[in-house]
Design goal:
Number of strands: 2
Number of helices: 9
Helix content: 55-70%
Strand order of the largest sheet: 1-2
Radius of gyration: 17 Å
Order of helices and strands: HHHHEEHHHHH
Structural class: mainly alpha
Strand content: 5-15%
């Protein structure tokens, strides 16, 4: 692991690895959006990451062991990015960050519904989601990327997001 060791403090070391502006966002997009290709990560992020920054962060996350990269068998010029076990174990951290943000920041309903469901589901839901992520990222990353292997938890979270987003769009249209 190529990190600066300012101290042995676990909070400091975690911030050295994940504390930049984009690393957690990229992991979030792979985890909750199942965005597994560079183009998907580039074009579908709410925050609009620049391609050079995305490439650099993917390379760093790969070198730190948070993601793996393999060639996509369906397209010779594409790579599939998958979460590794250390990234999958960030699910409780994402749940806690989302819960804190919902309580203290002006979040939107559609982008916070997954955080709400993760908070309500607690550790049992986090454990179930982490097991799902292991199946679609570690056991069968190709099937996870092409949709033949899915996560029931991710399907529920995505359905809730789409429902809230659809309701907001309908209200805005009327």
């Amino acid at each position: 692991m190529d990190i600066e060791l300012r101290s042995g403090c676990p909070i400091n070391l975690t911030m050295e690895v994940l504390g930049d502006r984009w690393s957690l966002i990229i992991i979030r997009d792979i985890m909750f959006g199942n965005r597994r290709h560079f183009r998907d990560l580039l074009t579908h992020s709410e925050e609009g990451i620049a391609s050079n920054i995305l490439a650099a962060r993917l390379k760093r996350l790969h070198s730190l062991g948070f993601i793996s990269r393999r060639e996509d068998p369906s397209h010779s010029q594409k790579a599939i990015y998958s979460l590794t076990e250390p990234a999958i174990q960030l699910v409780p951290l994402f749940a806690m960050i989302g819960a804190w943000g919902r309580r203290h920041l002006p979040v939107s309903e559609d982008l916070s519904i997954r955080a709400e469901l993760l908070e309500e589901g607690g550790q049992p839901l986090w454990d179930e989601f982490m097991e799902d992520l292991r199946q679609i990222h570690i056991v069968d990353p190709i099937g996870g990327a092409n949709g033949t292997v899915t996560s029931p938890v991710l399907t529920r979270l995505t359905a809730a997001f789409l429902k809230v987003r659809g309701r907001a769009a309908a209200a805005q249209a009327s």
